[in-house]
Here is the input.
Amino acid sequence: MELLWELVRRDVRARYRGSVLGIGWTLLNPLVFMLVYAAVFGALLKVQGPSGKSYLVFLLCGLLPWTFFQQALVMAASSIIANAGVVRKVAFSWMLLTVSTVMAALVNFLISLVLLVPFIIFTKSPVGLPLLAVPGLVLVTFGLSLGLGLMLAAGSVYFRDLQYIINLATMVWFYITPVIWPFTKYEGFFHHGKLGLIFKFIIYANPMTWVTLGFQDIFVFNRWPQHWHGLLYTVVLAAVLIYFGMRVFRRLRRRFAEEI
Amino acid sequence: MSDGPIVVSGLSKRFRIYHQRSETLKEMLVDRRRSRYEEFWAVKDIDLEVHEGETFGIIGANGSGKSTLLKCMAGILIPDRGKVTVRGRLASLLEVGAGFHPDYSGRENIYLNGAILGLPRRYINSVIDEIVGFAELEQFIDNPVRNYSSGMYTRLGFSIAIHMDPDILLIDEVLAVGDEAFQRRCMDHIEGMRREGRTLVFVSHAADSVRRLCDRCLWIDHGVQRALGVTGPVVDSYVGEVNQHEMEALRQAAAGAGASEAGWMGVRITSLTFTGEGEQASSATTGSSLTVAVGYEAPGPLHGVRFRISFYPAGQDTLISTQTDDGELGTRTLPAHGTVRLAIPQLPLLDGVYGAKVEILDLTSGRQYVEIDRPQSFRVQGQGRRETGMALLGHSWEVPLMDPTAAGV
Here is the structure.
């Protein structure tokens, strides 16, 4: 536990070493993306938020958990390789290196949630009791990231390309997650023939869909997350991913010190 | 069963040698059918038990698998067959400075590194002053380690490892860190741990240090256990074989080499031999004779030349250099080919392998015609000599005698 704490501290601090803005980058990053998406999709392509709701808040509350998920995966993928020096020389629970990177991403995410405050006040979006569901959603997202992260971390020791593949994959993944396009407005599209069915399958299978919708329910609509079946699926999936993530990691760790 | 702090039974570890590491997707897909690696056994069927409180040595040439064995003991490598059982807290000096964060100060790194090594913060608090003091980093401990010199870096890492207070300490020839004084303090510290009855495992290819430190040892050769037991005999047989290999290598070098390319003005050295009193070529004994014969060849008679021969211990600077008499050779013309001999009646070199450099120079311009440099020229056997080092010292000892009148008191 002590080691995990030290490692998380190291990872959080490592991200902003020597930068002037420091922790400010955690806030600036999603902020800039939000503005870019708002300009391109909102103003230019006329994508609209849920009726009568602020597109900005809608964007932001999907963007923040997504950024967490994406960064956790990307950082986890290189978490073992980046610590080659230690892995080659010291026998300890190497899994903690991956766990700590995902936790460091979590810390950044929690800090970035602050961003929502001024927007909620400015756009006068009401929030209330449903906020209590936020920790649950955060936990699920953390579980998803951790499970996948463990597989990626162990796998990329043997297959370096995984680091780059995950970069690309998350970019595509972003668009099949309803962050910039409101789910409810495009639901009808799923019933249009074969293509619609394929899209429906992909988007329903994507666990981040349900996490994002949950966040939007809380911050945009001020209501408890509506898609219970989706969330239940996500929770089960997260548990399965963690289980298999740990198994894969334990199996692959046997040759870490020599392959790295 | 036995219950020593470390029990190794039937341990084998296999490594993969990749023909060409296919880490990229393309190779992975294209080269599917071809086997991309070969496997070889880095250590095979090792059985040993380290006893409580002893210093156990693992000796062997480079690449013999000693470090692999040590890493298996440390739990970094997981054996493919057999197993390692460790009882007690184990620390290893493999990990010097591993996991330091460059932007952290020395002090923060002590906590981080300590956590990685499994030390509770409370414990580190109680020994941090000792760690810093031992590493002699009092003034710099709050500076980021990226500004440390490599010596400071290793001293700090070493100091942390040594202060882990382990029951078992694994040491892998890393004692050559820091300056002389720091090395000595490390040795003292390790010596202290020995006296306290800690168990030490020491890996080295140097026979001397194993002989000095270890109670028992294992000789490992190409991953296979060659001998196990009390240090003396095991190290003797190891040294015996190393010498034999060396002689073999020298003989081969002597047979093949000796001739140089043509140098300036087409002068070349055609042969270079070292003859001692023994029967074997390229072998001599301290205090007896050695003759160096240099065969040369030139397009025409040579006028005003200088021959120079320098001796040096393997991998070091020149120890002795000697050259022909310029006054005498300056007025003489040498035949276009012939042999120059340097006779040393009493060789002052002590036990070891020596290199030799032979040069032929033009006296008037000082320019070099040709040179030949052979790092492993001959082996000197210094059997039973009390001197250590490189050169023989003509000397005598005088010790005080007992005063006969005081003898009865």
